[in-house]
Write a structure and sequence with these properties.
Two copies of one chain form a homodimer. With 693 residues, chain A is an alpha/beta fold. The first copy, chain A, folds into two domains: 71-345, Spore Coat Polysaccharide Biosynthesis Protein SpsA, Chain A (Alpha-Beta Complex); 389-687, Spore Coat Polysaccharide Biosynthesis Protein SpsA, Chain A. Chain A is 35% helix and 16% strand. In chain A, helix 2 (79-96) links the parallel strand 1 and strand 2 (101-107). In chain A, helix 2 (79-96) packs parallel to helix 3 (109-122) and helix 9 crosses helix 10 (267-277). The N and C termini of chain A lie far apart (74 Å). Chains A, B: Keywords: Glycoprotein, Glycosyltransferase, Golgi apparatus, Manganese, Membrane, Metal-binding, Multifunctional enzyme, Signal-anchor, Transferase, Transmembrane, Transmembrane helix. Chains A, B: This is LARGE xylosyl- and glucuronyltransferase 2.
Chain lengths: 693, 693
């Protein structure tokens, strides 16, 4: 601190400082980086080196980021689409941030489900998340008539001072449709500009809406001039609570609603009306912190001057399709984060040590114990990888549950997208599909679904994105993600290259009823598997047709040529004749497609890449004494495809095969440990000559 | 400027300013963004809000970027691998930049070829590029014995003051192994800190190398303390030239080489020796501008304090595999730009209007003329898309030319990578392959090749990456990219799903010789096409074996079931019996695989997605009077694969088929315009019932 008690000298100094600082801003601000040497700015380089600055160019020096201070961000988020938007917003914030962050998320049940899983699996250091129940807060705003497309969710921002923890003094409030192009700490630093009276920081509205002259009888809510936009808000929660904010906005809203029928712009109308009444509450923020890209935006006045845009706001219901001659420019900034690999944001803040996210330490110990020289290092590393998971990536409205309902469970990556339409035609019931994608591929997938009438029409198909990381395909982890999200009492554990008989969904439910199964009974219904080698073939509509195709050589039993052991126990000969379900016994390498109760054992995630991933699951079912019942009218048919990269590696690499063998051995050791002598038969079966998978 | 002539008052003011600025740095620097209000810093908010700063935390305000000033960057780049590194470096620079840039690239012929095409097709606004011939400059440094892994290329930095244009006063010099994490204008702004005498800005070396105590008899070149690292250099070229830099470094180097056998760290040893002799030349830069990640780096001293790293330098020959406990952190920053979609950097600098890159205006006019309501809008937009092209993505050493040599030309995307090994086994000759990939996929492709012994062993396969943009597969543009890069007199125009007969390469060259063809003669040698429906099948080693498989129903003539017209004119019946080449006539929808002279007509890029892309090319050959000769022993076999997304769209969308028809019509109109009455037969052929492709 400066010595007190010399007010006059200080006053003079302050005045001089002011003068010098003005000069400083005008001529370039030669502050040194290690020690103050401001005076040097006055006798330094020729002005030619500084470019042609004028006053409006003078972006001031960036304020000090409050180093390692925890910054708080509140966001209201509801539904599947906003959850995707939030993911993109968070990626943009994390990309530039250098401070620990805490996200306060006001969510509905759908968004909470998605985002809890997303943040839990994301494991970003120095990021905390709290959830607040939107339903609980709704009554506080649901009385307000509102015409804005954000519905009630926009209005929810009004109640944040009461909803957030009482000891939270400041928060940045963001709409889900904003994208950061700079460090959020710079925004947080603007709190320092608030006077004692100011409680809310906002950017001026970049449209003429509140001027009230857009059309005849256009009557917007009252606002100061153009008013302010509430896509980005700095809130002094402590002062708002002290000032009785809860009463204040309700009084204003109630009064305005006496003459106005409803809010047009949700919370924004009410914030503006309050500010019009109490102008001292607002600290205007620089326009770059909320560049608004609505259809008739005046934002160009802002961005054509500023070289450094900070936050872009897609505040039109058209979002990226908004009409704006520079939309490509902004779209590129947005796409950057839409497609950004979120895994790369799992980086520590060196300068701000913070406790690691839950589970990280254990994981890092396990990773540190791996031996890089181990031939199976890649497998073990892949097994330990925690994949970021975005469940219910697209809107999903499960139908009311039917009795004995069955969810088809499968996993895929980009190269199998073209299977989805056919699968939807063959399986009219619910599906839970895990997709292994990069962030960029997830967007391609989204466009693919939007472009498909067949896929868009289905509300009972849930797509769960597991973000790619590591060289080996985590097939069993993917299956487990899809399985965990199935909502029906039964699941059909399928693979993406199979098309079930058109009647299978109905037939399976009828069979479960006829067999009087219940979800406690350990039964696995076997769906016999076949394959065609032709891309275009006429799918059999009955067992009789299927048998005819089989006899004519157009169809084969699945992997008849390469690996008959995988399905031999199904006993195709018996199936030809069978009229009723029949029981079969487990045998080594059996890997049928089965329908089981939803609470069946999970797949063993140690099997990554190609090989033994389903076999191990069937062993586990058998060890847990599931009865295997083959259904006489059920069938599913495998369509041809090129070999996957993983199967190519398996075939070409002896090391790959050796690792698979090591994994099998470890699996059997665990099996013995778990099931004791009963697991002996699996080891005995192993003694038989090993097959390819 | 401040009034002169009051030196004492100014002196006192400067002193006070200094004091105040110290306080200012200590307590957080509440500079306002719109007008100076520095005094407010002294009576503002409670210190609690600023976090616990201490002196070392005090990152000073960012200096003013010289708005719209053109910044110059020089980089030495040679060979395929450095060109890939340069691409990543440039992406990181462009991501954060807000100024027009000019890159001065000192390159060998390989890098120049690659980078000229890359920048030409990248079309980034406000980016200029100049090339300088590395070979011409070599004699100036080739006399220096050097042990560093960068070879002569590192040393080349010494001669930049003479090599760059004489009117260029300042330049930032970068190694290709650095990654930016901030705006390069901030680095440029550090030129302003140079005193009148200083000519070179450098960051201190972050290792103990130059202390000379790493091992017994370790004798490094002389340096000031730890010396400086030359991965990032600010050069005052004007002053260097004035000071006789060319003589200066040569004198020092010659003198040191009297007692030292060679440079260990290339140019860095010489820069340091000169600086040791003339310490006044150097302006030390903050450590964050060159965070050095070598094996025994001391960089943690830098990055554990600074929250804002600016440039990362992978200055170990191990690069990303360097041993450093924080390497994951830095790797993530690097991967960000390695995988970043470079197309997103094609964004204007609003605040700095600059002339558009060549061709852009024409393109934008054409795009603006498209009608968004046109059902074929997507096709027309895709046709106008300029794809960024990175030729020779991997090292490629063409073998000495053989007579009548033939390059296999094909294109693919990620879903066909698994074909490459088999293709290499079947075609021992040169190949030119275009790959349609995202930036991230290009890295997966690189790892795929590195992991494959078969692919790594081949130096005569050139891979050209065309970066993905737009929804439709630009099949013919890809073919043209691969075709343009073929270096042999003949090309075999194939598709990636085909495996040629093992003998085909030799047989084709022998046939060309026997037929006494020369590359002026317009002949297209037809390679008859077959298909198998099995993934695993024993590839026929002779025509006799092939015919046996055909007779047994294991092989078919290509698209026998779906589209026999495509290959019917090849006349398979005649081929069975043929002993010598025979001539066939063009017929509608004919699309054989052919060998033609390299200067054959290009593919028509209007055909994007699925359909008619090869057919149109054969029409063009016929219109130009190419003779079609079927070779009696040649064959190629199509392997099965799942239908592509494009073919799925074609089959499911009537609009897609209508657009293809519109494209065909336009193609025929152009044909008539070009070939007149001779093109009538193609229109007549059109009257026949249309087929699927």
């Amino acid at each position: 601190m400066l010595p007190r008690g010399r007010p006059r000298a200080l006053g003079a100094a302050a005045l001089l400082l002011l003068l010098l600082l003005i000069g400083f801003f005008l001529f370039g601000g030669d502050l040194e980086y290690e020690r103050p040497r401001g005076a040097a700015a006055l006798d330094g380089d020729p002005p030619a080196d500084r470019g042609g600055h004028n006053l409006s160019d003078c972006v001031p020096p960036r304020p000090l980021p409050p180093k390692c201070e925890l910054l708080h961000v509140a966001i209201v988020c509801a539904g599947h689409n906003s959850s995707r938007d939030l993911n993109t917003l968070v990626k943009s914030v994390l990309f530039y941030r250098k401070n620990p962050l805490h996200f306060h998320l006001v969510t509905d049940a759908v968004a909470r489900n998605i985002l809890e899983m997303l943040f839990h699996t994301w494991m970003v250091p120095a990021v905390g998340v709290s959830f607040y129940d939107l339903e609980e807060l709704k009554p506080q705003v649901s009385w307000i008539p509102n015409k804005h497309y954000s519905g009630l969710y926009g209005l929810m921002k009004l109640v944040l001072p009461g909803a957030l923890p009482p000891d939270l003094a400041r928060v940045i409030v963001l709409d889900t449709d904003v994208t950061f192009a700079s460090d959020i700490a710079e925004l947080w630093a603007l709190f320092a500009h608030f006077s004692d009276k100011q409680v809310i920081g906002l950017v001026e509205n970049q449209s003429d809406w509140y001027l009230g002259n857009l059309w005849r009888n256009h009557r917007p809510w009252p606002a100061l001039g153009r008013g302010f936009n509430t896509g980005v808000i700095l809130l002094r929660l402590d002062r708002l609570r002290q000032a009785g904010w809860g009463q204040m906005w309700k009084l204003t809203a109630t009064r305005e609603l006496l003459t106005l029928p409803a809010t047009s712009l949700a919370d924004q109308d009410i914030f503006n009306a309050v500010i019009k009444e109490h102008p001292g509450l607002v600290q205007p923020l620089p326009c770059v912190w909320n560049v608004q890209l609505s259809d008739h935006t005046l934002a160009e006045r802002c961005y054509s001057e500023a070289s450094d845009l900070k936050v872009i706001h897609w505040n039109s219901p058209k979002k990226l399709r908004v009409k704006n001659k520079h939309v490509e420019y902004f779209r590129n900034l947005y796409l950057t984060f839409l497609e950004y690999d979120g895994n790369l944001l799992r980086r520590e803040l060196f300068a701000c040590p913070s406790p690691p996210p839950p589970g990280t330490e254990q994981l890092q110990r396990a990773l540190a114990q791996l031996d890089e020289e181990d031939a199976c290092f890649e497998f073990r590393q892949q097994q330990l990888t925690v994949h970021r998971v975005h469940i219910s990536f697209l809107p999903h409205e499960p139908l009311p549950p039917r009795p004995h309902d069955i969810t088809l469970v499968a996993q895929l990556s980009m190269d199998r997208l073209q299977m989805l339409e056919a699968l939807c035609r063959h399986w009219p019931g619910p599906m839970s599909l895990a997709l292994y994608l990069t962030d960029a591929e997830a967007q391609q997938f989204l466009r693919f679904v939007e472009a498909s009438a067949v896929l868009s029409a289905r509300q009972d198909v849930a797509y769960h994105v597991v973000y790619r990381e590591g060289p080996l395909y985590p097939v069993n982890e993917l299956r487990n993600v899809a399985l965990a999200q199935a909502l029906t009492p039964y699941v059909f554990l399928s693979d993406i290259d199979f098309l079930p008989a058109y009647s299978l969904y109905d037939y399976l439910r009828a069979s479960i009823e006829q067999l009087k199964l219940n979800s406690e009974r350990k039964v696995a219904l076997v769906v016999p598997a076949f394959e065609t080698l032709h891309y275009r073939f006429s799918f059999p509509s009955s067992k009789a047709e299927l048998l005819a195709l089989l006899d004519s050589g157009s169809l084969y039993t699945f992997r008849y040529h390469e690996w008959p052991r995988g399905h031999a126990p199904t006993d195709y000969a018996r199936w030809r004749e069978a009229q009723t379900p029949y029981r079969v016994q487990w045998a080594a390498d059996y890997e049928p497609y089965v329908v089981v109760p939803r609470d069946c054992p999970r797949y063993d995630p140690r099997f990554v890449g190609f090989g033994w991933n389903k076999v191990a699951h069937i062993v586990e079912l058998d060890a847990q004494e599931y009865e295997l019942l083959v259904l006489p009218e059920a069938f599913t048919i495998h369509l041809p495809h090129a070999p996957s990269l993983d199967i190519s590696r398996f075939r070409s690499s002896p090391a790959y095969r050796d690792c698979l063998q090591a994994l099998k051995d470890e699996f059997h050791q665990d099996l013995s440990r778990h099931y004791g002598a009963a697991a002996l038969k699996y080891l005995t079966a192993l003694q038989q000559p090993p097959g390819p998978a």
